[in-house]
Design goal:
Strand order of the largest sheet: 1-4
Number of strands: 4
Largest sheet: 2 strands, antiparallel
Number of helices: 12
Order of helices and strands: HHHHHEEEHHHHEHHH
Radius of gyration: 19 Å
Helix content: over 70%
Shape: globular
Distance between the termini: 36 Å
Length: about 300
């Protein structure tokens, strides 16, 4: 029983990074109704730029982290311009005729374009630093705290607390500020938002860049504990963030924390039972299960930031 509870505690602590990477994804979907497949690759490219500065120029940790966050936001501007600028406008009647699986032509094009940029950004990162493992400034504290028979790392607990604070802050922002109200209005009632004078394209662009900034913050927190970045980091961010966001309900800010806890705990138990392959298989199985469940419900689930 002690081992089971320890694994559960480990999984709960792992929810911190999962919630951080899922927050930007769920917020971006709430504003644009599009899933950005280049989400993790953008953070990975910025992380590689920071790692290059750290390894080649001896840049201090604070500069590397700043480059990561700002770089992710700049890459986000590029992705938004290339993939989602058309999504800021309502689909034309002709585009609706290109429906594929319930999605109009522009939705399919935006998804395909973000996948293409995912490949492009990853290739740019690998070209910048061809090695598989690249050092990143480490802020990890590996000493464990003991609570009776249980052990936990303070840095992992700090990351979980950071995730909870960010989730609460974003939810408060959406509920209690004029800018947050504008985001919710654009997400839920785009036509009405235009009628009352909101600059819908500008609001969506700013929201998209803000979600990329959250991705940069998440990447900082995760990589600062790992002390390294690899070519798999972009895929890791996308998969873990997407599973956490979908378990909590895409567009639900508070829900992403619940989804992250479920993912972390189930992965920890699966790893104990089946090894590392069981951990990875659990994430993919949860993603597949949620997609099938949503398809069976006709795409039901959370709709927009009003459910933050």
């Amino acid at each position: 029983m002690v081992e089971f509870l320890q694994r559960t505690l480990d999984g709960l602590l792992q929810a911190g990074p999962y919630a951080l990477v899922g927050l930007g994804l769920t917020l971006g979907f709430g504003v644009l109704r599009r899933v950005n497949l280049a989400y993790g690759a953008g953070a990975m490219l910025a992380a590689y730029a920071g790692a290059w500065l750290h390894a080649r120029m001896g840049a201090p940790a604070w500069l590397v982290l700043a480059v990561l966050v700002l770089g992710t936001m700049l890459v986000g501007l590029y992705v938004e311009w290339m993939c989602f600028a058309g999504a800021r406008r309502a689909p034309a009647p002709a585009a609706r005729g290109l429906a594929v699986g319930g999605a109009d032509g522009r939705e399919v094009a935006a998804l395909a374009a973000s996948f293409a940029l995912w490949m492009q950004l990853e290739q740019l990162a690998v070209t910048l630093l061809p090695r598989h493992l690249n050092p990143f400034p480490s802020l990890a504290v590996t000493a464990e705290w003991r609570l009776g028979p249980f052990g936990l790392r303070g840095d992992q607990l700090s990351m979980l607390m950071l995730a909870a604070v960010l989730v609460a802050a974003v939810a408060w922002f959406l509920q209690h500020t004029r800018a947050g109200l504008a985001w919710r209005a654009v997400a839920d009632h785009r036509g009405a938002a235009q009628v009352v004078g909101l600059d819908v394209p500008r609001v969506q662009r700013l929201a998209f860049v803000a979600t990329c900034g959250l991705a940069g913050v998440a990447a900082c927190a995760v990589l600062a504990l790992d002390g390294q970045v690899t070519p798999m980091f972009g895929m890791w961010m996308l998969v873990k963030g997407l599973v956490a966001a979908m378990l909590g309900g895409l567009g639900s800010v508070r829900g992403v924390l619940v989804g992250a806890v479920v993912l972390g705990v189930l992965e920890a138990q699966a790893q104990a039972a089946f090894g590392a392959i069981g951990r990875d298989a659990t994430a993919w199985a949860l993603l597949l299960g949620v997609l099938v469940w949503r398809a069976a419900r006709g795409g039901g689930g959370s709709h927009g930031l009003a459910h933050a």
